[in-house]
Amino acid sequence: MEKEKKIKFFFGSTYSLIICLFLWVFFSKFSISDITSYEFIKNNTNNLTEIKNSNYLLVSIIFFISTIVWVLLLGFGTPICFLGGFIFGKWVGTILVLLSLCIGATFLYIIASFFLKEIIKNKFSKKFSSLSEKFKRNEFTFFLIYRFVGGIPFFISNILPTLFNVRVTNFLFGSILGMAPQIFIYVSLGSGLEKIIKDNLEPPTLLELFISPDIYIPIIGFITLLVVSIIIKNIFYKN
């Protein structure tokens, strides 16, 4: 119990410190009125594009490493997907986000397997005991389904497989294949928002946003993926 409290305190303190530091630096340079204005967003989008174009490889490496660190600090995946699409576009953004999230998740899984296994077992073994047999029958297939279905906070979904002793290679490649569809959709939304901001001098209305193919196609894809995930989830967890 004491060990669990120390681990929670460490991750919580580190995460909070980084967030507070970022917010302090950010708001020391910009005010609330600045960041909520469309002109500010558009100007900084253009500046970000210029920085990326002049230092593409460096920006890519920084984003890649930062995402891995973010995952290790128990960060969520969705903001990274939007940011990756916004900065790098649909295709390169998907590759960068997918690989960095999955590598970060794999590192977190390895750390959890060594240091947090008993804590995770005490917390989650009863709730997910029905999945143990499924993983034993065909580990890679069921882990692939587990990743595709989702529905669990990202950092929890990265450490839960310690209950089933999933092999590291199955974890990595199952994550890449299972998470690819949802990551592509989220990244496409981020890329669509960047394109709309770049092409419009004035802030677009909600209607203009939703009738843009760069927005409504990913949304349709998201809804379709959600329906398919719910169907598979019902089959997966019942049988």
Mean pLDDT: 79
Share of helical residues: over 70%
The profile of the biggest β sheet is:
none
Task: Tell me the β content.
Answer: under 5%
Cα distance spanning the termini: 34 Å
Q: How many beta strands in the DSSP annotation? A: 0
Unreliable stretches (pLDDT < 50, length at least 5) are none
- Gross geometry: globular
Number of domains: 2
> Structural class, from helix and strand content?
mainly alpha
The topology string of helices and strands comes to HHHHHHHHHHHHH
Radius of gyration: 20 Å
Counting H and I runs of at least 4 residues, what is the number of helices?
13
Give your account of this protein's structure:
This protein has 239 residues and is an all-alpha fold. It folds into two domains: 1-30; 38-238, no CATH class. The protein is 82% helix and 0% strand. It has helices at 2-29, 32-35, 38-54, 56-72, 78-88, 90-115, 117-124, 132-137, 139-149, 154-159, 168-199, 206-210, 213-238. Helix 4 (56-72) packs parallel to helix 6 and helix 5 (78-88) crosses helix 11. The model has no long low-confidence stretch (mean pLDDT 79).
Fold blueprint:
Blueprint: H1 2-29, H2 32-35, H3 38-54, H4 56-72, H5 78-88, H6 90-115, H7 117-124, H8 132-137, H9 139-149, H10 154-159, H11 168-199, H12 206-210, H13 213-238
Summarize this structure as a short list of keywords or feature phrases:
239 residues; mainly alpha
Summarize the structure.
The chain is mostly helical and 239 residues long. It is built from 13 helices and no strands. The protein has two domains: 1-30; 38-238, no CATH class.
